[in-house]
Write a structure and sequence with these properties.
Strand order of the largest sheet: 3-2-1-4-5-6-7-8
Number of helices: 10
Distance between the termini: 30 Å
Structural class: alpha/beta
Shape: elongated
Strand content: 15-25%
Helix content: 40-55%
Length: about 260
């Protein structure tokens, strides 16, 4: 299969690295700003360099604000039975079909841990997408982690708010947690080891035991103990829960604005 990436920034490049390890498709990139070629993929600076070449899958990996301006130039780059897949956050199927009319669209909402094969991606396909096209995109995303199909387009924007933007929330929580550990007198290295090791072990315990976070939280919380004292400061008034709700709601609203 011949796959064309329009744009290859941080997210597109992270995915491409995983794809080239897992599948045998032929990858071509068009990106005027990419200076270093990607081993195993062809790189062109301009669409005109493609000539009359046709592709089976076009992957939109540019910023959503650039879609209306850039994509129409690629209307003849797909085979008649080709498809469009997009990782442009918040960019609706309708916008993509306006830019590239006549082709089925599959929206992908990946996240940054895809770079290490530990990503979570939401997938949504327009009604015109065939089972084979859906399978192709699902296989690509499974090469970078976990792929979850959703039933309607609004849900893909909700995936954006939870999983797409989610690593940013986790990184910020980790950063603040490390700073708190340093305030208790630990060095940068000590604080990082203690916090990141605790986060890693706790998440793995949830995944490997299959228990839910509330039960596990209760199992480590003794009455009048240190954990209870810390939890009361963290979320005793429900402010952390409210803050996370506000965080995901704000990201979701922004995804709607980008449609």
């Amino acid at each position: 299969m011949k796959v064309l990436l329009v744009g290859c920034g941080k997210m597109g490049g992270a995915l491409l690295t995983q794809w080239m390890r897992a599948v045998e498709h032929e990858f071509t990139i068009v990106d005027p700003f990419l200076d270093q070629p990607v081993e195993g993929a062809r790189l062109f600076k301009d669409i005109n360099a493609l000539g009359d070449e046709k592709f089976d899958l076009l992957i939109v990996a540019i910023k959503p604000q650039m879609v209306d301006e850039i994509l129409p130039a690629y209307k003849d780059a797909l085979n008649p039975d080709g498809a469009v897949a997009s990782i442009a956050a918040g960019c609706s199927v309708q916008r993509l079909q306006t830019a590239l009319p006549g082709y089925p669209v599959i929206r992908i909402m990946p996240n940054l841990p895809s770079a290490i094969g530990a990503g979570v991606a939401g997938l949504y396909a327009s009604s015109a997408a065939s089972a084979d096209q859906r399978d192709t995109v699902e296989t690509l995303m499974q090469a970078a982690g976990t792929a979850v199909w959703v039933d309607d387009e609004d849900q893909i924007d909700r995936v954006t708010a939870v999983a797409g933007s989610g690593p940013g929330y986790v990184f910020e929580i980790a950063r603040a947690y490390i700073e708190a550990a340093k305030e208790l007198g630990f060095s940068d290295e000590q604080a990082s080891d203690l916090v990141l090791g605790t986060l890693d072990g706790s998440i793995r315990m949830i995944l490997e035991t299959g228990d839910n976070p509330e039960n596990l939280r209760n199992s480590v919380t003794s009455k009048n103990g240190t954990t209870e004292a810390g939890l009361k400061a963290l979320n005793g008034d429900g402010k952390l829960s409210d803050l996370l709700k506000a965080t995901t709601e704000s990201a979701y609203k922004r995804a709607i604005e980008l449609r």
